[in-house]
């Protein structure tokens, strides 16, 4: 082979260049530097490397070299070609100099068949090992053949297409090139994170059989439109979101992860959000920007070069907001499970409900829901509404929603039609009959007299029915006209989640005894409610009149308080 | 004279019952303890009301059944009081607090039923003998006791003793006001019968099948006569 380098000055000015050869061979590898060459305007210089090989100290068995040309001239001022051909001119390669390398190179057509060798040379001119993925596209781009190799810095990977076809060599997926393939296009990627050191060239061998040796100059695939992914950060306090930098591959429009080329990351306001490599962390409610700077391969007019770039993305950190608290009330001294619905809740959120509510078992179910246990502790009827807020991290507390500290203050009739519309059952007169309560239980048998059922629920300071907890209710009678009066029911347990209180007022005797004319009973009835060990007297007073009143057996009740 | 003999026999039973106890504590509601309770422990309690009311609350908390009889010296239900029972107190000790300075005698729970009776012995009406009484253990306590009250032997004894029944005045209980109360499973009829037993014994046998139930007998001196009521304080 006769290696030659041709350099032409395309300008009307003098210019200079220098050449370094990184040679490789069985005896090893080395570097040879040629003297600086001055080029007259529009002059062409031919450098017969083969003739200079001994003078340059390159051993005879060196079989290839990487040629680096350095000049102060502008791109396209110099055109350089490295050519190696045998004496017949039938075998050889011409390689154009390119202005840069890339992590993604796309090339045109390589002729290929099983009988004519076309050798692709993939060279790593970077300083780190490159994980090269060569993809050969055939059948109109519908099929592909993939070869993956690690190429050491300054080393090459050679791919003989004819050999691949002849020997049915499988690719990394186990597929082989079909025997009738005639052309391929290729795509070369450096899979190494941040790797950009590959160049590709091709050697047509034995072109006397019909192939024009057509060294394909790979086009480097530069990147464009870098940006953050996601392009907007909508963060919660205390939450870290992953971040990446992507760009668009100019060759195929693919999105390319170039995060590895970005080493500097920072926040516009670290009191709002902190930014580190590949992550953005919400600190407190507010807005700022996340920044990252690094390098990206861009097109410089003749090839790809690394240029510094900086990208930014808006960051918004949201404060928690409460939409509702459910249930919005609970009985004093009684734990109750509460669900807080809202927005921007995050792990570690704390719930406050003021000094009159003990909050426990706080659990952030999602960004929109928190569950907790509230235990109202204020036994005063004045301790009603309590402000509930959620706090995340160092951010200010959320807006507040009320939770009502319920104290049992009074009883009110509970409307339960058809048994007791308006809380009142029918007045029933019996002669040797059975008095039933509203549950259908026989309360007294063989009664001669009259009875009526009443049904009550227990209400709070706002006259809202209390619907959680278990209480014990005790009757208190006063102003009894006919002693000894009824035996007060004591500590009757009532589960307020599902139960109310029923009272049956009877005035009668065991048959055959019956009430005498005008015999009656008048009394006042009220209750106390025991919650835990605290007794809450009800303000409700029911005046009861029952018996043979005005000649007709009757029961009347009149609630006068409140 | 016959009444005194019967009272003595009851005291003897109490002594026998005490002799069978041991010091192994059981928690309230322990079925084994209910059968032959060595030492029932109650949780912290606030007891309020008359002696029968406090007794009924205590029996309920202890997971027992019971009966209380009081002979009030006036036309009232008696004085009301309030006591605090610390957690871990035995049922016996708590009951002792309830009857402190009262002319009452408490009996050790027997077969899960505790009685609190006047110190001078059970009221005479409770000692009337019933020839035969058959009842359904699954039926509500109030219903069965109402039937006991209607028995001819009881009515005759009321007349013989010159007692008048206090007016029936009703009472209070919980009622389901939601759809999710859950229906209690209906219990299959379990017929039981007693022959030649006293009203007191039958009352105890009736509540025995209903843990937490307490029967109550009260006498009141109203004017020149004596009223009585036979009721259910807890069920």
Gist?
The complex is a heterodimer of chains A (562) and B (235). By secondary structure, chain A is mostly beta strands.
Could you explain how this protein is built, in words?
By secondary structure, chain A is mainly beta. Chain A has five domains: 2-85, Sandwich (Hypothetical Protein Tm1070, Chain: A), CATH 2.60.290; 96-220, Sandwich (Hypothetical Protein Tm1070, Chain: A); 223-318, Sandwich (Immunoglobulin-like), CATH 2.60.40; 321-406, Immunoglobulins (Immunoglobulin-like, Sandwich); 410-561, Immunoglobulin-like (Sandwich), CATH 2.60.40. Chain B has 235 residues and is an alpha/beta fold. In chain B, strand 13 (214-222) and strand 14 form a beta hairpin. Chain B starts with a helix and ends with a strand.
Strand order of the largest sheet of chain B: 7-8-4-13-14-10
Largest interface: A-B, 55 and 47 residues
- Cα-atom radius of gyration of chain B: 18 Å
Q: Categorize the overall geometry of chain A.
A: rod-shaped
Order of helices and strands of chain B: HEHEEHEEEHEEEHHEEEHEE
How far the N terminus sits from the C terminus of chain B, by CA atoms, comes to 35 Å
Secondary-structure map:
The complex is a heterodimer of chains A (562) and B (235).
Chain A: E1 2-9, E2 15-25, E3 28-33, E4 37-39, E5 44-48, H1 49-52, E6 64-71, E7 78-85, E8 92-96, E9 104-111, E10 118-124, E11 130-138, E12 143-151, E13 156-160, H2 161-166, E14 183-190, E15 198-204, E16 219-220, E17 223-229, E18 233-236, E19 240-242, E20 244-249, E21 255-257, E22 262-267, E23 273-276, E24 279-282, E25 286-299, E26 304-318, E27 321-326, E28 329-331, E29 336-343, E30 350-352, E31 357-366, E32 369-376, E33 385-391, E34 401-406, E35 410-413, E36 428-436, E37 442-459, E38 470-478, E39 492-495, E40 499-510, E41 520-531, E42 534-537, E43 541-549, E44 552-561
Parallel strand pairs in A: 18-26, 28-34
Antiparallel strand pairs in A: 1-5, 1-7, 2-3, 2-4, 2-6, 7-8, 9-14, 9-16, 10-13, 10-15, 11-12, 11-14, 17-20, 19-24, 20-21, 22-25, 23-24, 25-26, 27-29, 29-32, 30-33, 31-32, 33-34, 35-37, 36-37, 37-40, 38-39, 38-41, 41-42, 41-43, 43-44
Chain B: H1 2-20, E1 26-27, H2 31-35, E2 40-42, E3 45-49, H3 51-62, E4 65-71, E5 81-85, E6 89-90, H4 91-98, E7 104-106, E8 113-118, E9 129-136, H5 141-150, H6 152-161, E10 163-165, E11 168-176, E12 191-198, H7 199-208, E13 214-222, E14 225-234
Helix pairs in contact in B: 3-4, 5-7
């Amino acid at each position: 082979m006769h290696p030659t380098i041709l350099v032409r000055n395309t300008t009307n000015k003098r210019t200079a260049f220098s050449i370094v050869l990184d040679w490789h061979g069985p005896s090893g590898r080395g570097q040879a530097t040629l003297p600086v060459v001055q080029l007259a305007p529009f002059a062409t210089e031919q450098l017969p490397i083969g003739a200079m090989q001994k003078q340059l100290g390159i051993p005879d068995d060196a079989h290839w070299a990487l040629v680096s040309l350095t000049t102060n001239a502008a791109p396209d001022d110099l055109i350089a070609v490295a050519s190696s051909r045998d004496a017949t001119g039938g075998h050889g390669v011409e390689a154009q100099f390119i202005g840069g390398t890339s992590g993604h190179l796309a090339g045109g057509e390589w002729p290929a068949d099983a009988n004519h060798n076309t050798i692709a040379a993939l060279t790593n001119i970077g300083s780190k090992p490159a994980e090269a993925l060569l993809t050969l596209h055939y059948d109109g781009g519908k099929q592909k053949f993939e070869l993956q190799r690690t190429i050491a810095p300054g080393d090459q990977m050679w791919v003989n297409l004819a050999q691949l076809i002849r020997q049915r060599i499988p690719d990394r997926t186990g597929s082989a090139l079909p025997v009738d393939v005639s052309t391929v296009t290729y795509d070369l990627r450096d899979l190494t994170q941040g790797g950009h050191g590959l160049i590709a060239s091709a050697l047509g061998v034995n072109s006397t059989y019909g192939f024009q040796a057509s060294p394909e100059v790979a086009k480097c695939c530069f990147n464009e439109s870098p940006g953050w992914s996601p392009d907007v950060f909508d963060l919660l306090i205390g939450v870290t979101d992953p971040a990446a930098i992507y760009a668009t591959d100019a060759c195929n429009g693919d999105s390319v992860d170039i995060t590895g080329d970005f080493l500097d990351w920072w926040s516009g306001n670290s009191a709002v959000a902190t930014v580190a490599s590949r992550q953005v962390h919400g600190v407190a409610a507010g807005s700022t920007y996340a920044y990252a700077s690094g390098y990206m391969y861009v097109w410089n007019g003749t090839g790809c070069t690394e240029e510094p770039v900086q990208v930014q993305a808006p960051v918004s950190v949201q404060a928690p907001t409460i939409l509702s608290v459910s249930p919005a009330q609970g009985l004093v001294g009684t734990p109750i499970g509460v669900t807080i619905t809202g927005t921007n809740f995050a792990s570690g959120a704390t719930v406050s409900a003021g000094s009159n509510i003990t909050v426990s078992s706080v659990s952030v179910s999602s960004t929109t829901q928190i569950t907790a246990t509230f235990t109202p502790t204020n036994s005063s009827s004045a301790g009603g509404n309590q402000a509930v807020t959620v706090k995340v991290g160092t951010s200010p507390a959320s807006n507040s929603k009320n939770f009502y500290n319920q104290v049992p203050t009074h009883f009110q009739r509970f409307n339960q039609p058809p048994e007791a519309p308006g809380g009142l059952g029918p007045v029933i007169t019996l002669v040797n009959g059975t008095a039933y309560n509203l549950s259908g239980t026989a309360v007294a048998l063989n009664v001669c007299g009259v009875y009526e059922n009443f049904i009550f629920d227990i209400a709070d300071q706002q006259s809202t029915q209390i619907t959680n907890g278990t209480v014990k209710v005790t009757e208190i009678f006063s102003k009894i006209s006919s002693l000894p009066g009824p035996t007060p029911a004591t500590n009757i347990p009532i589960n307020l989640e599902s139960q109310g209180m029923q009272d049956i007022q009877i005035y009668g005797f065991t048959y055959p005894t019956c009430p005498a004319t005008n015999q009656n009973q008048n009394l006042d009835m009220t209750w106390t409610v025991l919650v835990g060990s605290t007794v809450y007297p009800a303000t409700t007073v029911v005046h009861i009149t029952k018996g043979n009143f005005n000649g007709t057996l009757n029961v009347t009740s009149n609630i006068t308080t409140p | 004279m016959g009444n005194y003999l019967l009272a003595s026999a009851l005291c003897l039973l109490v002594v026998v019952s005490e002799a069978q106890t041991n010091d192994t504590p059981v928690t309230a509601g322990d079925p084994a303890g209910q059968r032959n309770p060595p030492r029932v422990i109650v949780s912290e309690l606030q007891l309020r009301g008359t002696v029968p009311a406090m007794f009924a609350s205590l029996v309920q908390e202890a997971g027992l059944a019971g009966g209380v009889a009081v002979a009030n010296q006036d036309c009232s239900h008696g004085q009301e009081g309030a006591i605090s029972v610390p957690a871990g107190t035995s049922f016996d000790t708590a009951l002792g607090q309830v009857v402190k300075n009262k002319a009452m005698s408490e009996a050790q729970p027997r077969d899960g039923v505790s009685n609190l009776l006047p110190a001078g012995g059970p009221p005479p009406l409770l000692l009337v003998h019933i020839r035969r009484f058959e009842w359904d253990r699954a039926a509500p306590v109030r219903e069965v006791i109402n039937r006991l009250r209607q028995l001819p032997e009881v009515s005759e004894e009321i007349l013989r003793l010159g007692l008048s029944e206090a007016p029936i005045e009703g009472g209070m209980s919980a009622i389901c006001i939601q759809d999710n109360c859950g229906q209690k499973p209906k219990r299959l009829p379990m017929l039981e019968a007693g022959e030649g037993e006293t009203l007191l014994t039958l009352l105890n046998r009736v509540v025995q099948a209903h843990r937490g139930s307490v029967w109550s007998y009260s006498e009141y001196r109203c004017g020149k006569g004596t009223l009585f009521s036979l009721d259910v304080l807890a069920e």
